[in-house]
C-alpha cells in the first residue's frame, strides 16, 4: 500500500478528542466534539482523531464507560470537518474489526492500529481490514521506551508489510529522553522511510513532547501528534498549538494557522477542561518510571478507594512492567500496597 | 479395553498436545494410545519415548487403528478440526476440541460440562474463557448480572502465532461465552499481551455488574466455592484478593460492581508455569475427557 502524498513538511495530527478522552474520563459530549472539530478543521489541521481514549470498543468497566457513544461522536466529527480526515484508534485485544466497520460507517477516514511496541504481529488482521474498507492507516508502537531502537524498527516493518502507511514511535509513558527518542526516530526512518511515513506521538510527563517533536522533524519524521491544551493522558500530549507556533518559527510548513489553533485552545477547549494537564507528582512519576500515561486517573481513583498514594501505585506499576490496557492491575496493585501497609 | 481405561488419541503433537499428554498420563480412566501429527516432529518423538504409538500420517492413520480411540483431543488448528470433525463423528469418536473451530457446544467444566458429557463434539472456548467464565457463573448463579467484562493478561511468550494472527477470534468467542456459558446478559472480553521478563503469570480480572441490593456475602461465598472447584483441575488457580465490591454509580445505570482478581499459575507439566493460559486449556480439556471417559465406563456399551 503506497503512502499518501503530503502537502507540507509535517502533517499535524490532533488527538484532543481521543487521547484527551482519558483526561476527560471519556465524558466528551457531542457538542464539545463538534466545536473542537470545527475549530481544528478551520485552523487547517488535516487529521483529527476521535475515539474513546482506549480506542473504538474501549468503553468498559476497565477503562471507563463513554458518556456518549463514540460512533455518535465520530459521525458528528465527520459532519463538522470540511477538509480534515477523521481518524480512529483501534487497539487489537480491545477493539475489533467489527468496531472498525462501524467506525467506517460512521464516517472515519483513517485508522491508527495500536499495539505494545513488541507485539506488532497482532495488527495485520486489522490493517488488512482497513485496506479492504479503503481507509488510510497508521500504526502505534506504544510504550516505545520499552524496546531498543533496532527492535522497534523491526516491529515497524511488520506493520508496514501488513499495510500500515505510517508507523509511529509512540511514547505512551512520556518517558523518552531526547537522545532516546532520536535513536528510535532514526531507526524507524532507516527501516521503512522509503515506503512509509514515520510518526511521533509524545506525552509531556518529562516535558519533552515538543522538544522531541522538533528532533523528530529534523530526522525525517513527518506525522506529529498533538492535543489542544495538551489534553491527554498523564500530563498530556505535546500541545498542538505550541507545535504549530514552534514549527512556524522554525520555518517548517504544517499547513495550519498557529493563531487559529492558539485561539481554539483558549476559547474552545480550555472552557471544558476538567483540569489543565500538568506535570504534577503523579505524572512526573509516570514519565520517570515509564508508566502508561492513561493509568493516571485510574491510579488516583484507586488511591482514594484504598488509601494509598497514587504515586506509589504508579511506581509499582512501572516496577512490575505493566503495559497499556492493564488498568485492572492498578486496583490489584492498590490492594497489595494497602495490605503491605497494614503489615 | 486394556486395564479398564477408555482408549484416547491426541491429534496435534505441539506444545499444547504434549502438555495435555503429560496430564492424561496420570489418568485412571483414559488411556492415550495414539498421538498424531501431519509431519515428523519433536512432539511425536516425545510420545514414542513414552511408548505411545505416534504417526505423522494424520487422521487417516488414526482411523485405521484397532481399537479406535473413543475420545480424541484435537490440538491442531481450526481449519484442521473442521476437516477432521466429521470423520470422528462418523467413526463414533467423541471430540474434545482445543482449537478455535467451535463446532460443538462451548464447555467450561465446573459450569456446564454435565449438560454436554454425551455431546459428540465439545469446544474448549478460549484460554481467557476457561479462566474467567467460572467466576462470571459464580456471580450469576447468585444474582442477576446484566453485564460482565473480563480482562485476560498473558505473557507474550505464551501467545502463539495462531492467537496473534486472529486476536479478534479471542475477543468474539470469549465475550460470547461470558454471556452464553457464564450467564451474564451481555459480555465483553479484553486480552493484553505483556512481554515483561521474567514472563508474567497469567492474570485475569472479572468485572460483573450487579444490582444495588445484591447479596455481597453470598457472592463472595459463591466465588470461593467456584475457585475450589477449578482448583480440582488447576491447582494454581487462586484469588489475588477477596472480591471487591463497588457502590452503585449513575454511570453504571444505578448498578454496583464486583471485581474478582485471579492468578492462573500452570502446573508446569510440559509448558512453563507462567503459561497458565495454556495450562488451563489443557487441564480443562483433560477434565472434560476424564469425565466423558468415566461416564463411558459406568454405562456399559
Q: What does this 3D model show about the protein?
A:
Chain A: GO terms for molecular function: 2-isopropylmalate synthase activity; 4-hydroxy-2-oxovalerate aldolase activity; manganese ion binding. Chain A: Belongs to the 4-hydroxy-2-oxovalerate aldolase family. Chain A: It catalyses: (S)-4-hydroxy-2-oxopentanoate = acetaldehyde + pyruvate; (S)-4-hydroxy-2-oxohexanoate = propanal + pyruvate. The complex is a heterodimer of chains A (343) and B (301). Chain A has 14 helices and eight strands. Chain A is α/β, with parallel strands linked by helices and 343 residues long. In chain A, helix 2 runs parallel beside helix 3. The longest helix of chain A has 15 residues, at 178-192. Chain A is globular and about 60 Å long. Chain A starts with 10 loop residues before the first strand and ends with a helix. Chain B has helices spanning 15-24, 42-49, 58-62, 78-90, 109-112, 127-140, 161-165, 167-180, 216-231, 276-298, and strands at 6-11, 30-36, 53-55, 71-74, 94-97, 121-123, 147-155, 186-194, 202-210, 237-239, 244-246, 256-264. The termini of chain B are close together. At the A-B interface, helix 14 of A face strand 7, helix 7, helix 8, strand 8 and strand 9 of B.
Could you tell me the radius of gyration of chain B in angstroms? 19 Å
Give the C-level CATH assignment of the largest domain in chain A. Alpha Beta
Shape of chain B: globular
Q: What amount of the residues of chain B lies in strands?
A: 15-25%
Catalytic activity (chain A): (S)-4-hydroxy-2-oxopentanoate = acetaldehyde + pyruvate; (S)-4-hydroxy-2-oxohexanoate = propanal + pyruvate
Protein name (chain A): 4-hydroxy-2-oxovalerate aldolase
GO biological process, one term (chain A): L-leucine biosynthetic process
EC number (chain A): 4.1.3.39
Give me some keywords for this one:
heterodimer, A: 343 residues, alpha/beta, Helicase, Ruva Protein, domain 3, 8-stranded parallel beta barrel, 14 helices, B: 301 residues, 6-stranded mixed sheet, PYR_CT (chain A), manganese (chain A), DRE_TIM_HOA (chain A)
